[in-house]
Amino acid sequence: MKLLVIGNGGREHALAWKLSLSPRVHKVFVAPGNAGTELEPALQNIPITSFPDLIDFAKKEQIAITLVGPEIPLAAGIVDAFRAAGLKIFGPTRQAAQLETSKTFAKKFMTRHNIPTAAYASFEHPDLAHAYIEKQHGAPLVIKANGLAAGKGVFIARTAEQAHAAVNALLVENNLGTAGNEIIIEEYIEGTEASFIVMTDGVHILPLATSQDHKRLLDGNLGPNTGGMGAYSPTPFVTPSLHAQIMRNIMDPVVNGMMKEGITYTGFLYAGLMITPENQVKVLEFNCRLGDPETQPILLRLRSDLVALIEHAIDGTLDKANIEWDRRTALGVVMASSGYPEKPRQNDAISGLRELIAVQQQTDNFHIFQAGTALGGKDDEIVTAGGRVLCVVALEENIKLAQQFAYKLIEKIHFDGSQIRHDIGYQGINYQKKNIPN
Ligand code: AMP
Ligand code: GLY
Asked: Rounded to an integer, what distance in angstroms lies between the CA atom of residue 25 and that of residue 38?
């Protein structure tokens, strides 16, 4: 069969690569893809992005299933459009995607269904928001734009002044445009963050392996928020008992609640979680898709045929699906371009990467998933073409070894101005030192 993946990031490279390993798959098209997907033997990029053109392409090529990576096409209703054209696609409809595209929708939904999350209030008028901040007796508070903002819509205010400034930036200066026409102000929750991603057919839920992202640009979780600078899977923070708590208190009520409200949710569903010191799990946000970079380490560990899992999800038989994971830890480190996240520079030549791509064809213990890359110049060089450039994922016996291996691989890759974090996985390593005496 032939498949189609929509998107051009590292997550989509990993998805398309994993799908192409299925013995039943003949070819995976990626629209529009990047240099990484272009260079994978079983993948082919197609330079199409408009829905009508994608639908024509899927019909003409007799695409068996289409998978959507990013939130933007989901928010714009790509699933609705493909289904209306009689095509098989895996992902939430535009209405279901509101769990990510509208923070007020997600918050009200969580309140209706008793799903644990930070207390909040929502505002469209700056005066009311300012008054609310004063009434909260100070900071810290978290101010969030209602709409999609590519990681730029969340302000952690440590002081009341910062909270007032965030309100003004969104509601008065309109810095994020319509995404910030409505805001929520929520309670700051202390704890450890983890990512929890499931697949659902609308009724049954299949949890994927656990993971932890690193959202801040700099070591020690400092610096500005980014799309994510690295991730590893599994994370020891999600213990078996927390796993059960997350399924019981969060994932089951979300999927059931959506069904009861008549907006059946199919697709991947990602909950960004805070685990409090009292071992209570609260939802920070939902995403209506796989995480990036979480997908890269998660899929490197997936032993099952991803195509079979997606088929079960589309047919409503996910309860019959079997999912197997490599017991080892996968750890991915993102290399970002100079200037990321504010003003990423493009067109820096990347060296050392082609040599590693040749090696990775012969091993299953690492893979480099490309994101902001393109082929350019006279020798078909790989050059940077975006903020997060690539994610080097290594598979090893434990977090520490996977970390060492990933950084050893990173040393072989070079481009001017590259930015990495040097501590991906550090919280997991510290946790294990404390909890597993040797
Ligand atoms: P979000 O896009 O909602 O996941 O927020 C981005 C980041 O802001 C999260 O990864 C957290 O680090 C932080 N954050 C969001 N909401 C809260 C909260 N209520 N309390 C503490 N930190 C938060
Ligand atoms: N890594 C966070 C996200 O995908 O939203």
From this structure: 17
AA identity, residue 267: G
Question: Helices 426-435 and 399-410, interaxial angle, to 10°?
Answer: 150
How does pLDDT run across 347-388, given as a tens digit for each residue? 999 999 999 999 998 888 999 999 999 998 778 899 999 999
For residue 109, the model assigns a pLDDT of 98
Q: How far apart are CA 241 and CA 249, in angstroms?
A: 12
- What residue's CA is closest to ligand 2, atom 3? 291
Contacts of 358 (CB under 8 A, 6+ apart): none
Q: Minimal CA–CA distance to 278: which of 196, 212, 213, 189?
A: 189
Query: Does ligand 2 have an atom closer than 6 angstroms to the CB of 294?
Result: yes
CA 56 to ligand 2 center in whole angstroms: 30
284 CA distance to ligand 1 middle (Å): 6
Closest to 315 in 3D by CA, of 88, 96, 55? 88
Q: Which residues lie across from 88 on neighbouring strands?
A: none
pTM summary value: 0.95
